[in-house]
């Protein structure tokens, strides 16, 4: 069977076909629908942000410095977030020190050493499930275990174990699965050809991991960790259970460093929670201002993560 | 990836065979009139991936300072066989190697053999150039560093790059990323990296398949020079390449059983000239004349 000789259009017909613009209604409708969804999602965020910022303006306009450095107080005119910021930073530091090595170590073992055994698969699946457990459950865990543990080892202080150490441990347990998952994904993204190259010149497994896999995965691991720390910074529910205080507290001028870790502590998101439950417009303004501070810290962390990723990202 | 692949080794009862021994199998597979000493003796090599029988009953004798080409259609197991020579298959959890691969008389799959030491002596160049995401210098220096090289590292890097015919092109930018090089340069860098640990043997798994003809030609010339110092085994899809560069050629083919399992086996192993002009097996002739594959 032979193909029919193609019909040759005249130049005029070709010109008309190529240039005759027709409106593609389906294309247009689809694009418009997508744009509407974008506007809806961004719009909600913008309204929320604008509302919070507008509500916080009285505080920042009249006593910005005093608010940033001040202590928690039952009086709206003197209350500030200083102690809460310090508490939140201390919590985040504890999480970083504990969760970073443990999480990355776990990820390295699971990805580079454990192989694809049934047990390893079971562990991986369960870590994924743990990452989806609601944070309040970790709060109960912290309340049931970490509070007693910290008190039992003599670091309970005046709060009998409901202190910043316990909060840090609880948040560590909360973010550990997330750090493991993001670090695992970063390690898995390193192509096997790099590992083969390492083994091919006679490297041991640890030499391959240390010299090639980890440096190649570092940008992804770092980005994931920074984002996870930001999540820990903003977490509220579990801290309510392990003793972040919502009311006034102060440390004596004779307080030692150990006291700071074993005594009562505040955390920024918990402060927001506490103030937003207070009656009266002045506390609502304080809550809004605290939210703004929280958002600034979180956005800074996210920006740092993006800069880190862009600077060290590699392509193969 | 697990280092502890499951190896079942069928130990030969006799001691490592002396070089002049001619067992029945050796007569079959050792090319006639070969004046050179064998470096590898492969006996009854079988490779499995889980239940899949990938390669069946391979017997081979590889001579020192020669280039041996492994050719055959896709899926015939030639790369799998190549990876048995430096225990690269260990890295695949489900791979299982049965049989005897003797290197200078030592069974590479014996219990007490350290695969890391094996790979220092038997270097490998991969199908896709895979430099480390590091500087040119560090790519070459990594192997010697981890194997405890005590001499002058700068000199070693220079001599390795010179042997790989790359030094002149990169001498002013040794600190630059290896990823800034072209594909052909990257592959020569990988060759430099492989020879920096002063191995005996170079295994090359389709080293030119990702390269253009000019880069391919340069690698082929390089192989001819390297042959003075190294034994080279090369897997290639390109029959002209096998004909051009190799001294011996091993032709592998696939056989499909009733269940649809595709198992590779060695069809014929001989002088390259003979394989390409007067092969003993009809399957070899069909393949090299382009009737299949």
Q: What would you say this structure looks like, in words?
A:
The complex is a heterodimer of chains A (316) and B (293). Chain A is mainly alpha-helical and 316 residues long. Chain A is built from 12 helices and no strands. Chain A is flat and about 95 Å long. Chain A starts with 10 loop residues before the first helix and ends with a helix. The mean pLDDT of chain A is 86. Chain B is of the alpha/beta class. Chain B is globular. The two termini of chain B are 32 Å apart. The N terminus of chain B is likely disordered. Classes of the chains: A mainly alpha (316), B alpha/beta (293). At the A-B interface, helix 7 and helix 8 of A face helix 3, helix 4 and helix 7 of B.
Envelope shape of chain B? globular
Distance between the ends of chain B: 32 Å
| Rounded radius of gyration of chain B (Å) | 19 Å
Given helix and strand content, the structural type of chain B is: alpha/beta
Strand content of chain B: 15-25%
Strand content of chain A: under 5%
How much helical structure, as a percent, in the residues of chain A? over 70%
Question: Strands of the largest sheet of chain B, in order across it?
Answer: 5-4-1-2-10-9-3-8-7-6
Give the SSE order of chain A as H and E letters.
Answer: HHHHHHHHHHHH
Mean pLDDT of chain A: 86
Largest sheet of chain B: 10 strands, mixed
Largest interface: A-B, 27 and 30 residues
Largest sheet: number of strands, sense, barrel closure of chain A: none
Helix/strand-derived category of chain A reads mainly alpha
Shape type of chain A: flat
The ordered string of helix (H) and strand (E) elements of chain B is: HEEEHEEHEHHHHEHEHEEHH
Low-confidence spans of chain B: 1-6, 8-30
Mean pLDDT of chain B: 85
């Amino acid at each position: 069977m032979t193909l029919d000789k193609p019909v040759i259009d005249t130049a005029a017909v070709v010109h008309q076909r190529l240039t005759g613009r027709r409106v593609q209604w389906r294309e247009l409708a689809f694009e418009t629908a997508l744009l509407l969804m974008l506007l809806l999602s961004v719009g909600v965020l913008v309204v929320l942000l604008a509302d919070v910022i507008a509500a916080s303006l009285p505080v920042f306009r009249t006593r910005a410095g005093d608010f940033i450095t001040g202590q928690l107080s039952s009086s709206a005119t003197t209350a500030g977030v200083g102690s809460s910021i310090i508490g939140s930073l201390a919590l985040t530091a504890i999480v970083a020190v504990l969760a970073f090595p443990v999480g990355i170590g776990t990820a390295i073992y699971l990805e580079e050493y454990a192989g694809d055994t049934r047990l390893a698969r079971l562990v991986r699946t369960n870590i994924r499930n743990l990452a989806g457990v609601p944070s309040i459950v970790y709060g109960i865990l912290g309340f049931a275990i970490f509070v007693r543990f910290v008190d039992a080892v003599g670091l309970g202080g005046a709060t009998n174990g409901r202190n910043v150490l316990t909060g840090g441990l609880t948040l560590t347990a909360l973010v550990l699965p997330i750090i493991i998952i993001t670090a695992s994904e970063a390690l898995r993204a390193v192509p096997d050809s790099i590992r083969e190259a390492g083994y091919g010149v006679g490297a041991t497994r640890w030499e391959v991991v240390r010299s090639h896999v980890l440096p190649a995965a570092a940008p992804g691991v770092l980005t994931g960790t920074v984002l996870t720390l930001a999540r820990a910074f903003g977490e509220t529910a579990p801290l309510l259970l392990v003793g972040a205080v919502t009311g006034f507290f102060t440390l004596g001028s004779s307080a030692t460093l150990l006291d700071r870790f074993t005594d009562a502590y505040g955390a920024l998101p918990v402060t927001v929670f506490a103030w937003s439950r207070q009656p009266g417009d002045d506390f609502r303004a304080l809550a809004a201002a605290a939210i703004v501070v929280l958002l600034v810290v979180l956005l800074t962390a996210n920006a740092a993560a993006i800069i880190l990723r862009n600077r060290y990202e590699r392509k193969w | 990836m697990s280092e502890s692949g499951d190896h079942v080794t069928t130990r030969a009862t006799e001691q490592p065979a002396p070089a002049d021994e001619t067992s029945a199998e050796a007569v079959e597979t050792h090319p006639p009139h070969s004046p050179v000493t064998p470096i590898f003796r492969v006996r009854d090599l079988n490779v499995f991936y889980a239940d899949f029988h990938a390669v069946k009953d391979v017997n081979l004798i590889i001579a020192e300072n020669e280039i041996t080409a492994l050719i055959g259609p896709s899926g015939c197991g030639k790369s799998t066989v190549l990876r048995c020579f430096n225990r690269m298959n260990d890295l695949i959890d489900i791979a299982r190697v049965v049989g005897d691969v003797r290197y200078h008389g030592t069974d590479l799959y014996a219990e007490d053999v350290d695969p890391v030491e094996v790979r220092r002596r038997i270097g490998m160049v991969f199908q896709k150039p895979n430099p480390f995401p590091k500087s040119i210098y560090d790519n070459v220096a990594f192997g010697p560093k981890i194997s405890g090289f005590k001499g002058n590292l700068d000199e070693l890097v220079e001599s390795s790059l010179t042997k790989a015919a790359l030094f002149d092109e990169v001498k002013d930018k040794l600190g630059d990323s290896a990823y800034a090089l072209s594909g052909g340069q990257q592959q020569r860098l990988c060759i430099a990296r492989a020879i920096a640990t002063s191995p005996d043997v170079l295994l090359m798994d389709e080293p030119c398949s990702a390269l253009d003809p000019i880069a391919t030609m340069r690698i082929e010339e390089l192989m001819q020079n390297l042959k003075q110092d190294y034994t080279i085994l090369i897997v290639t899809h390109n029959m002209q390449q096998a004909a051009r560069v190799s001294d011996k050629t091993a032709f592998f083919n696939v056989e499909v059983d009733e269940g649809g399992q595709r198992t590779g086996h060695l069809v014929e192993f001989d002088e390259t000239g003979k394989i390409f002009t007067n092969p003993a097996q009809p399957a070899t002739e069909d393949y090299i004349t382009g009737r299949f594959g």
